[in-house]
Amino acid sequence: MGTELSSKKEQADWLDAFKTSCVFRLSESRRMLEICREQLEEEYFWARPNPSSNSIGNLLLHLSGNLRQYLLSGLAGAPDTRDRDREFLPEPQGNPGEVWELFLSTLDQGILAIKEADADSLLSTRTVQGFELTGMGMVVHAVEHLSYHTGQIAFALKLRNDQDLGFYDGIDLNIHNE
Predict the structure, then answer these.
(1) 57-93 pLDDT, tens per residue?
(2) Architecture of the CATH domain 2-42+51-161
(3) Of the chain's two ends, which shows fewer C-beta atoms within 10 Å, N or C?
């Protein structure tokens, strides 16, 4: 009996640590994208640097679609309604404010799906976008995918505005590990 309780506590500790870490990473990307939003001129939202690259608007639509497919559908079980090709159309797909709000709302729903996920849903394997993944794999993908495109958006904005974005203003990043 004591081993069972210890094992359940260890599982709860592991589960909480995994979910908390993933939610923190998603929230960090959100924080950085909010800073980008403040510095982004609306006329640049749908601008593509070249035909092979995506606009910031396209990237936000793409992130919304990916978060919906991996977290809301794959992890939480909602129907998969993603139209991936539409995320990359070269013409504007709506007004910038609505696209930002769609992204933020989808991210909030994805974070909630992670917080509500139990061990079974995180360890179960399902097919998402043609890949066999555990729920944990879906969460890790969503975190790294958002981080990857957050970096692209930050780079595009720094290139455009020629200024630091201030993600870590007031934080000493030279502190050594203890």
Answers:
(1) 999 999 999 999 999 999 999 999 999 999 999 999 9
(2) Up-down Bundle (1.20)
(3) C
